Amino acid sequence: MTCLSLASIYDYLEKELAPEKVQTIEAHLQSCSRCRQAVEDRRRLLEACHSLPDLSLPPNWAQSVMAKLSRLTPPTLIWLLVFLTSSVLLLSSLGWLILSFQPGLAASRLPFIKLVTVGLARSLIFLGAKIILTLSTSLQALVFPSSFPQAGPGQNFPLFPLELFFSLLFLVGLGCFFWIFWRNRPLAVKKP
Amino acid sequence: MAEDQELVRQVLAGHTQAFEAIILKYQQPLFNYLGRMVGERETALDLTQEVFLKAFAALHTYNPNYNFRTWLFRIASHLLIDQWRKKKIPQTSLEQSWDEEDASCFDPVDTRALSVTARFEMEELIRQVEKALQKIPVHLRELFLWRHVNGLSYAEIAEISGLPVGTVKNRVFQAKERIRASLEEKP
After folding, report:
1. Could you tell me which of A190, A71, A49 has the C-alpha nearest to residue B45?
2. With 70 as the cut, is the pLDDT of residue A181 above it?
């Protein structure tokens, strides 16, 4: 038999060979000192490779990773409830605000889907302005009641209370959606 | 392997704490691999943590018919490549060129110096191997680490890297012979 190739030496040392091949190699090693020396050399090299020490991790490292995970973990049932509630808040307030802005639509007897899409198309641009107007007027009435004749002392709060209610509902629903998105955002690769 | 699948099943069923057992089992192999790939402790710690966060976030996409360990190492390898591409970690080793035909695994023994490792006591030899490891190109180092530090089989490495088993074996061979060659250079 000719001398061993380096590949077969590694295969032999890593026990990657069939038993018959191992026997052939061992028979050759009995008679070839050069190959024996080469095998011994690679054996020591592999032993050193396998003995490379573990790199030391900080104590309680796994717990610190778990703490980070727990902040990313939504308890499923609670999140589902939050999601459903915020959806109801958002849709009902949005619907009311649209219809209040386009009062003719409600009486138009259009099919529901068409009512919503037409309402959205006509009202979306003004919706934000309406919410801001409602909230700012309400704030003005609360902070400076005297400068706001409709909201004087002893009077019922007359400032389109439904609009205020639905505007707040809309903002709460929107806030919940952003919160859900933020808690469930894709995990960004932290800059090392 | 069945133990891993069971832990994954528990995590997906809502028992998040089962993931701690996964971290405890794989933190050391992953850190040994990433630490020696990037050569910087803090960076390696951040990357190891990121691997677990990514694995946790993507656990529902894990196919239990496959090996969990190779899935985890694939995430680590992709993260490493991603970080190098974004130049978030130094990539000097990435630029090192290497030649596939540098050392042929079919060379007979008599073309090389016969005994190199005998010159060192085992403790010193381990130190020298550790140093030499940092000098070999990352393409070779990664496969070498998986094979000889993490103890993965050639088939598992082929699964992680997407390379044919023959190529993996050849590259691991190249890595070992390069490490050995660098020992020859020592006075």
Report:
1. A190
2. no
Cα nearest neighbour of A54 on chain B: B32
The full DSSP string for chain A is -PPPBHHHHHHHHTT-S-HHHHHHHHHHHHH-HHHHHHHHHHHHHHHHHHTPPPPPPPTTHHHHHHHHHHHH---HHHHHHHHHHHHHHHHHHHHHHHHHHSHHHHTTT--HHHHHHHHHHHHHHHHHHHHHHHHHHHHHHHH-GGG-GGG-TTS---S-HHHHHHHHHHHHHHHHHHHHHHHTPPPPPPP-
B2-85: CATH, from 3.30.70.330, 3.30.1370.20, 1.10.1740.10, 3.30.160.140? 1.10.1740.10
Nearest-angstrom CA–CA distance, A117 and A104: 14
From the candidate CATH numbers 1.10.443.10, 3.40.190.10, 1.10.3720.10, 1.10.10.10, the one assigned to the domain spanning B94-185 = 1.10.10.10
Interface predicted TM-score (ipTM) of this complex, two decimals: 0.82
Residues in chain B with CB shorter than 8 Å from the CB of A5 are 105-109
User: What are B144-170's pLDDT values in tens digits?
Assistant: 999 999 999 999 999 999 999 999 999
Instruction: Identify which of B52, B82, B118 has the shortest CB distance to residue A65.
Output: B52
Residues of A in contact with B57 (CB under 8 A): 72, 186-187
Q: Give domain limits for chain B.
A: 2-85, 94-185
Report CA torsion sign: A188, B1, B5, B6: negative
Comparing CB atoms, the residue among B14, B88, B105 nearest residue A7 is B105
- The pLDDT confidence band at residue A9, using thresholds 50, 70 and 90, is very high
List, for chain B, all residue ranges whose pLDDT scores fall below the cut of 50: 92-98, 100-101
- What's the pLDDT score for residue A191? 33
Q: What is the pTM of this model?
A: 0.65
Contacts (Cβ under 8 Å, ≥6 apart) of B94: B84, B137, B138
